[in-house]
Specification:
342 residues, alpha/beta, Quinone Oxidoreductase, Chain A, domain 1, Rossmann fold, 7-stranded mixed beta sheet, 25% helix, NAD(P)-bd_dom_sf
Length: 342
């Protein structure tokens, strides 16, 4: 299948017919990749993380914004071409392409430092082709410089799972030395947990995956139970990473007075009815998390380097991207799934 018409050719995966992952919504084929335009860089992909958002796009929970879109927004690559007006990167540099791809820069949200809420924001692997391919074009202004000395596969999950987890942690209003509950313990959660632990928090992991519970304990969590279990102590804050609306009242009920629950996913199944007295009274807060700002990304990447964050990676060859998404859907992935060149 042809993926475009330009001089450079690569192989990539595209979402052709959104549907259950077993129906084969991803199709692999040759595609054309244009030269980078003004303000853009062309990356040869060294690794691309597999995010649950990619699964939502493939299965149609997240409606495609364009036909035959290449997913993937945790891109680590080498710059192979630079467009006009790019001064921040040169050919040969290592750079990261992330979920947030563009904003208008002039709306009231952008001017207030809330570019994640920009009504005209665009996203890698949704509005434009992403990193489930050999080559990817990304806007230089929204790319991150990355160190040469680290394995590409371990860097990739930092670019969305890490950044979004970091924003979710800040949205959870965790007090200093506080008690944090994390519901779902995949790519984002295992990175956010390390930030919280490094900052002196007590972390309780709540997840249906036995392997994820083992990982949480290995990273330093005080406890690890099933997603519907009651944590061993009241929580000051909680983050819901699992896209399961049924867990919202469960997590709210686990909060202490004035606690905050941050819901981190871009897609969530329906939330059951909430009981005001049980779930929200005593000034408990329920917050959503929407994308991230570039400042979030810069802060998190610097922090991750400073604390020596450990990334648990399950690598897959690029030719098995469909298998990686299937394993993610079935909770068979430890930490973060990452595609690497065959």
């Amino acid at each position: 299948m042809a993926f475009g018409t330009s001089g450079r050719t690569a192989y990539g995966w595209a979402v052709e017919r959104p549907g259950p992952i077993q129906s084969g919504p991803l199709v692999r084929g040759r595609r054309g990749v244009g030269e980078p335009g003004v303000g853009e860089v062309l990356l040869r992909v060294e690794a691309c993380g597999v995010c649950r958002t990619d699964l939502h796009l493939a299965e149609g929970d997240l409606p495609p914004r364009r036909p035959s879109t290449v997913p993937g927004h945790e891109i680590v690559g080498r710059v192979v071409a630079v467009g006009e007006a790019v001064e921040s990167f040169r050919v040969g540099d290592r750079a990261g392409g992330a979920w947030l791809r563009g904003t208008c820069g002039v709306c009231r949200y952008c001017r207030a430092g809330q570019e994640n809420l920009c009504p005209r924001s665009t996203y890698t692997g949704w509005d434009a082709d992403g990193g489930f391919a050999d080559l990817a074009v990304v806007p230089a202004a929204f790319a991150y410089p990355l160190p040469d000395g680290r394995d590409a596969a371990s860097l990739a999950p930092l670019l969305c799972a890490g950044i979004i987890g970091y924003r979710a942690l800040r949205r959870s209003a965790l007090p200093e030395g506080g008690r944090l509950g994390i519901y779902g313990f995949g790519a984002s959660a295992h990175l956010a947990a390390q930030v919280a632990l490094a900052e002196g928090a007590t972390v309780h992991a709540l997840t249906r995956s036995a392997r994820a519970r083992e990982l949480a304990l290995a990273l330093g969590a005080a406890s690890a139970g099933d997603a519907y279990d009651r944590p061993p102590e009241p929580l000051d804050s909680a983050i819901l990473f699992a896209p399961v609306g049924d867990l919202v009242p469960v997590a709210l009920e686990a909060l202490d007075r004035s606690g905050t629950l941050a819901v981190a996913g871009i897609h969530l199944s329906d939330i059951p009815s909430l009981n005001y007295q049980r779930h929200l009274f005593q000034e408990r807060d329920l917050r959503s998390v929407t994308s991230n700002t570039r400042q979030d990304g810069r802060e998190f990447l610097a922090l991750a380097d400073r604390i020596g964050i450990k990334v648990t990676v399950s690598p897959y060859p690029m030719s098995r991207a469909d298998r990686a998404l299937a394993d993610l859907a079935a909770d068979r992935v430890d930490g973060a799934a990452v595609l690497v060149p065959d």
